[in-house]
Structures are given as C-alpha cells and as structure tokens.
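Example 3.2
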Amino acid sequence: MGVAIELPERTRTLVQCDFDGTITEEDVSFMMLDAYADGDWRHLFREYQEGRITVGRFNTDAFAMVKADKDSLLRVFKKNIEIRPSFQELVDYCRGQDFRFVVVSNGLDFYIKEVLRDIGLADIEVFSARTRFKTDGISVQYIGPDGNHLDTDFKGAYVDSFLGEGYRVIYIGNGTSDIAPAGKCSHIFATGALLDHYKQTGIDYTAFTDFNQVIKGLKLL
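Structure, written as tokens:
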C-alpha cells in the first residue's frame, strides 16, 4: 500500500484596495473639506505631505474644522462622484476566483460605505477611519486590526495582519500613503503618485487607469 502524499494547501489570495483616487476618480474627502472646512485644511495637508504630521493627525485636525451634518456632506460628492471604470467587474472577478477583496483606506467610513451601497456593493469589507458627528466637528479615529488606536501606518497594519493570516496580498492604490504598505505585497497595481514612485524603483508593478487592466494583470499572476 502506497504512502499518501500530503499536498500543500493552496495559498489564499487577498486583494487590498485603496478607495479615494483609486476606486473613485477623485478624493472624496477633499471635496468635502473644500466645501465645508472652516479653516486652512490645505496647510495641514502640506504638513502631512512633508512628513511633519501623520495621516491620523491630518484627518483628525482637518475634519474637526467641518461643522456640517452628515447629509450635507454626502450631498457634496453624490453630484460629482465618479467610480473608476470596471470596478464592478473587478469585484466580480475576485469573487469568481475566491479572492478576498477588501477596501483599506485612510478615508472616512461614512462616505466610503455610502458610495459602495449606492453602487450595489455594500457587502464589501471596509477598514477605514471611524467617524462620529459632533456639534464641534467630526471626530476621526483609526482602529487597527488588533483593536487598538493607530495614528499612522493604518494601511500597513492591515497588510501585516493579512500576511500573518497566510494570505498572498495583492495591492491596488494611487497615493503616497500606499507606498510603504504596497512594498510588502506580492504584486502592486499602481496609478497616480504610487505609480510615479514605482517607476523609479526596480520593484515589479502593473500600471492601470481602469480596473479592466487590473483584471487582466491578475489573470497573469
């Protein structure tokens, strides 16, 4: 009688996708801040870009300038929001391949979930800033996969968590905050500032402008 050979378990794949400027064509949070922030939020943003404050500090201080209610904020972007082409097809492809698809974003939970609900994808897993509407502004808090408060490297913390669970992680993003977490992943799909960065490195990546290109790239991995 032959000895049974134990085959290795198939590696599970997880696709981690940014939201603002990646799933959407524009940054939704910037639309809201431009419309309702009572203060110079762009000065704070420059400080974040220059590395003088964390993303957590930026969002906390910037959205504290916003006194508008939730419905008013949602109306700002609903007139102008554009979803990057073929997003539904990307989600359908990942589900068909049994890939776990998650959104991990420095953006705010209330508008991300509203957008996904409006396009019929409310069941997508979302990890983002938790928001509370108060009379003195919006309260923003980042909670990591371990349940503790985070002030920086929110996206990276989730990449580390997913890798620790044994996933092969594929990254899709567009911004400077995606550079560090993307570098930990098996493959990177990049646009915007993330693409500009990886053009200067020897790390393998796939450029995209719409999600049909991401689907084609996933089929080759």
